[in-house]
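User: tokens in, sequence out, please.
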């Protein structure tokens, strides 16, 4: 099965960088819609959201000198016109002649200086200090009032992003307010989905302000929020004429000590729809695997030189290596032997760490599709020069380009990146997934989708979404063993 590029122009699932969003504004304005018209729509959307969400109360609108502040002036005007008691405080006057200056000129009441003391009589705050492209940490009165908002735990609404959050990476520059909600415009930015920005943004409300959807054809966004609409058509659907090999035959290479990891990966693979799963392991540990699942085929682990013959004779269509395999030369040699066959491969856990300091060896060995599934620690061991200050999305993209394979950079904000720059950000994973063994389950799901012929990028995106949906279905008290059992119902809903 081959896959077309993800339909990043579908609905509102695209995620735009700061530069891409500025280009969307520019193209819309060039098309005949004035910048002040967009600003009016943005501020009106903020005011409408506040009026729908809260009962009337004193509200403090904090305005910076740029366009974000201009949105705040408009929101304040609409709230005041609706009878809300509004105080507007500004860091400074907008630049003369700017759209923000036009918006400020329509505010006909007093403008206060930004000061934490204003918060004493204002239980609701609108943060329109800085937008997504802030280049340095807030300072002076801005920093002081942000700190006070957090200290007092006030209701706060962010305009575009919470001030201090970088829209491209979700990183916090200094300190940012913990918002109950954030109103943003046209399309999400990476910082709305990536941590810690996502946690600070609260509920995200995406408002249509009149930016024309047609501009996306010129921008050509390469990032999207992970959603089944992006990959559902590529999932294997059981057919009457199917046999077990058509549904994929996955090889799982299990370890000799941490046997639970391989068993979890194998069970997840079977529940995800694999027609057959074969697990190979050191002979001494094989009885443990054989006694676990009656439908699991177990065989002694051959030497690396014998893997190709085994995969040919058993009609293996993909492989998972790493869960519980042990770190070192032995695991690395097994991985290299699998990669040499050109079969699609998932390299996880100990399989990744076995290439620490040797990522060039891994890259040189690629002959077919590869998904690597590092968490933050494993990522740092593989790519020590791609540091956290670059942001998770940029790091994942750089790693995928260097590796020539798909990188599934795990976490509550998993990023899936392809070598060609495409990326999706996943945000459906509940915190309950922070439990031992859940990563092994994810590796097994990835392996099944590869074995069924799904392209690596789409397989990784689908697997991480299914994994998150299974976690949400189980809920509190989740353990890794619960996840495979939740998959059949989720898959059935997708097929329906």
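Assistant: Sequence out:
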């Amino acid at each position: 099965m081959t896959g077309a590029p993800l339909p990043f122009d579908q609905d509102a699932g695209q995620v735009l960088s700061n530069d891409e969003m500025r280009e969307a504004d520019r193209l819309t304005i060039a098309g005949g819609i004035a910048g002040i018209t967009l600003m009016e729509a943005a501020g009106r959307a903020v005011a409408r959201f506040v009026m729908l969400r809260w009962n009337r109360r004193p509200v403090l609108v904090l305005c910076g000198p740029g366009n974000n502040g201009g949105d705040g002036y408009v929101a304040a005007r609409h709230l005041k016109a609706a009878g809300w008691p509004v105080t507007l405080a500004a860091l400074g006057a907008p630049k003369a002649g700017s759209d923000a200056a036009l918006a400020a000129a329509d505010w006909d009441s007093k403008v206060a200086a930004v000061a934490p003391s204003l918060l004493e009589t204002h239980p609701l705050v609108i943060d329109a200090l800085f937008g997504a492209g802030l280049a340095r940490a807030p300072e002076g009165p801005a920093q002081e009032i942000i700190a006070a908002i957090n200290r007092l735990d006030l209701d706060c609404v962010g305009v575009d992003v919470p001030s201090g959050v970088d829209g491209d990476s979700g990183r916090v520059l200094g300190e940012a307010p913990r918002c109950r909600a954030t109103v943003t415009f046209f399309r999400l930015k990476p910082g709305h989905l990536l941590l810690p920005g996502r946690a600070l943004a609260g509920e995200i409300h995406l408002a249509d302000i009149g930016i024309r959807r047609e501009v996306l054809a010129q921008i050509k966004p390469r990032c999207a929020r992970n959603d089944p609409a992006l990959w559902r058509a590529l999932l294997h659907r059981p057919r009457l004429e199917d046999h077990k090999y058509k549904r994929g035959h996955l090889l799982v290479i299990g370890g000799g000590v941490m046997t639970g990891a391989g068993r979890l990966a194998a069970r997840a693979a079977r529940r995800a729809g694999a027609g057959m799963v074969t697990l190979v392991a050191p002979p001494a540990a094989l009885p443990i695997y054989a006694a676990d699942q009656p439908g699991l085929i177990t065989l002694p682990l051959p030497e690396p030189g014998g893997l190709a013959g085994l995969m040919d004779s058993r009609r293996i269509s993909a492989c998972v290596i790493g869960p519980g395999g042990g770190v070192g030369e032995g695991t690395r040699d097994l991985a290299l032997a699998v990669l040499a066959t050109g079969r699609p491969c998932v390299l996880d856990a100990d399989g990744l760490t076995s290439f620490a300091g040797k990522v060039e060896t891994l890259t040189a060995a690629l002959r077919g599709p590869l998904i690597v599934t590092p968490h933050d620690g494993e990522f740092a061991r593989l790519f020590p020069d791609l540091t956290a200050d670059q942001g998770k999305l940029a790091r994942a993209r750089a790693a995928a380009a260097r590796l020539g394979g798909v990188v599934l950079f795990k976490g509550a904000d998993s990023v899936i990146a392809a070598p060609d720059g495409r990326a999706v950000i996943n945000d459906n994973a509940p915190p309950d997934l922070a439990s031992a063994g859940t990563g092994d389950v994810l590796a097994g799901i990835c392996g099944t989708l590869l074995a069924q012929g799904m392209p690596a990028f789409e397989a990784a995106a689908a697997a991480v979404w299914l994994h998150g949906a299974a976690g949400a279905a189980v809920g509190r008290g989740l353990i890794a063993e619960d996840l495979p059992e939740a998959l059949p119902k989720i898959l059935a809903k997708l097929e329906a």
